[in-house]
Design brief:
mainly alpha, 61 residues, globular
Length: 61
């Protein structure tokens, strides 16, 4: 069974985007670009809350 973890090797802030990229087997930079594009939209506050929650709740790999 595959588990979602924060990345240690592909980490800029907390490793959340790197962990999501590793989980879905895609480049973590694509996940970061999608997060930034969503942040420039109207989803700034929910995205920041989701990122902080993931950084606090996800275990480190």
């Amino acid at each position: 069974m595959k588990a979602l973890y924060r990345s240690r090797k592909s980490c800029y802030l907390a490793g959340v985007c790197g962990g999501i990229g590793e989980y879905f087997n895609i480049d973590p930079n694509i996940v970061r670009i999608v997060a930034v594009v969503l942040c420039f939209g109207s989803m700034v506050v929910p995205l920041v809350i989701a990122y902080v929650a993931a950084a606090l709740l996800l275990p480190e790999a």
